[in-house]
C-alpha cells in the first residue's frame, strides 16, 4: 500500500512548539487534528464532566423549574407568554456573548481565568435573580446571568479542541455530554426542592458553578497559548460570519440548530405541559413530576452518551450516530401526542434521553473535527454555540405562538419535524464519516 503524502501539519515547521502549547494550523479543517497530541491527562475528563454538570445544573434548574415557577407566581394568567418573553430575550444575550467571550479567551491565550471569572460571577447573578419580583426585572437579571455563564461556557467548551487529540474526541465529548443528564438531574432536584424558596435555590445553583470553576482551574493546569493581537470589531464580526462559509461547519451548525430548536420548544415548556396537557396521577404536582422525569431521562441520557461517544471512536463513525439519534428524537416527541398520560411521559423521557444524549456526545466530537482553524477554536466553538443559544431565542416565541393557536399537540409535532430536518442537514458533511 502506498504511503500517503506528508500532510502540512506533519512538516517540521508545523509541529507543536512545547513552549507555546499549540500547533500552528494554517489550513481549513486543521482543527480536526489539533489537541495535545497525546492522551489527555487522567484528571481532565472527570474535570470536564464536573464543569459541564455544574453548568447544566444551573441552566436546567433555573430554566426548567425556578424561572417558570417564579413567572407563574408573578402573573399566572400570562405565564406562557411571559416565559417566552423572558427566555427569548435572555437567549439573545447568550447568543451575543458566547462567541464574544470565546474570542476574548482566544485573544488572551487562556481559558482558565474565564472559567473561574464566569463561575464566580454566577453566584452574584443568581443571588440577584432570586430577589426580583417583576417580569421586567426577571428578564434583565436573567440576561445578566446568561452573559456571565456564557463566558464560563465558551472557555470550557474550548478545552476539548485545545487539549484532546482527535482519536480521543469521542471519549472527551462523552465526558462533556455526561454532564447534561447528571447536571440536569441535580438542577431540577434542587429547583423542585426549593420551589417555594427561590432565593435559596438560585443561590445554591450559583455556588455549585463557582465550586466547579474553582476545582477545574485548580486541577486542570494549562499552558498559555500565544496571545492574539487585538482585532478591529468589524473584522471580528466578519470572522464570525466567515466561519459559516466552510461547508462542513455550516451543515453541522444547521443540523444542531434545527434539532436543538425542536428540543427546547418542548422541554422549555415541560412544567406547563405537565400542568395543562398531561393527565398526572392523583396528588402529583407538576413540579414533582418534573423531578421524577428528569432523573429517568438522565439515566437514559447517561447510557447513550457514554455508549455513543465510545462506539463512535471505535468505529470512527460520527454522522451515522448523530443522524440516528436525531430521528429517534423525532420518534420520542410523537409519544406524548399518541399518549398524553403519565406512563406516556415516562416513555417519552426514556426515549428522548437516549436520543439527545447520543446526539450531543457524538455531535460535539463531529464539530471539533470540522473547525476551520485550531487557533480560533474558542471563537469558532462560540459561533457553533449560537446553534445552541439561537434556538433558545426562537423556541419560547415559537412555542408560545403554537400553544396559543393550537395547544401542545402541534408543539410536539413541530419538534419532531425539526429533529428529522436536523438529521438530514448532516448528510452533506464530507470531512467526517
Radius of gyration: 21 Å
Helix/strand/pairing category: mainly alpha
Name of the CATH homologous superfamily:
MFS general substrate transporter like domains
- Count of the domains: 1
CATH fold label: Growth Hormone, Chain: A
What is the first-to-last residue Cα distance? 22 Å
Number of strands: 0
* Strand-residue proportion: under 5%
User: How much is the average pLDDT?
Assistant: 78
Q: Which spans of ≥5 residues are poorly predicted at pLDDT below 50?
A: 1-40
Question: Largest sheet, if any?
Answer: none
What's the CATH class, please? Answer: Mainly Alpha
Shape: globular
Per DSSP, the total helix count is 16
Model description:
With 433 residues, the chain is an all-alpha fold. The protein has a single domain, classed as MFS general substrate transporter like domains (Growth Hormone, Chain: A). It has helices at residues 44-74, 79-108, 112-129, 135-157, 159-163, 169-193, 198-219, 233-242, 247-267, 270-276, 286-315, 319-338, 342-368, 377-384, 386-406, 408-425.
Which helices and strands, and how do they pair?
Layout: H1 44-74, H2 79-108, H3 112-129, H4 135-157, H5 159-163, H6 169-193, H7 198-219, H8 233-242, H9 247-267, H10 270-276, H11 286-315, H12 319-338, H13 342-368, H14 377-384, H15 386-406, H16 408-425
Task: Put the structure in a nutshell.
The chain is mainly alpha-helical and 433 residues long.
Properties at a glance:
mainly alpha, 73% helix, Growth Hormone, Chain: A, 16 helices, disordered N terminus, 433 residues, single chain
